[in-house]
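Deliverable D5.2: sample structural annotation.
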Amino acid sequence: MSPDRVPGTLHDFMRQALQMELDAASRYTEFADAMEMHNNREVAALFRKMAEIEGKHADQIMSEMGWSEMPGPITARPAWEGFEAPETVPIDEVHYLMQPFHALTLALESEERAERFFGQIAAAATTEPVRKAALGLQEEEREHVELIRAWLAKTPRPDRNWADDPDPPRYTD
């Protein structure tokens, strides 16, 4: 990670970490809504659970920082590359017929990205408060990774024909 991308203050770093959690919660909620629209209730419930977990993580950051309301917008360039925060699942990765195994796999990948991201911040931090906070968040993401791995171990793999739809949606103008 480029040193110029590492937040220099704890406030700036935690503001970005908060934004990551809120973005992830929002995306999981969008996925849950989409799955419900396609009557894929089992995956919708799983995405709602993931949104709840990310929301609790955001609440934890707010509490730890003593913030009673959202801090101002991020003014510095985000520490992550690209448009999406590391913990946000790409929107184009979701399929309306996906099964719990797929949803958990996407969640695992995003939690692993977040864990690596916080590890990179900790390694490149120039201040002890940022380094310490990044290590703490990295550990929390590691716990999420282990939780999702445990869920995946109990989740059946889908058939190879899982995406075959005998009655696919039709789009008309």
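Annotation notes: The mean pLDDT is 87. Helices lie at 10-37, 41-65, 100-124, 128-153.
The annotation will be released with the project's public dataset once the embargo ends.
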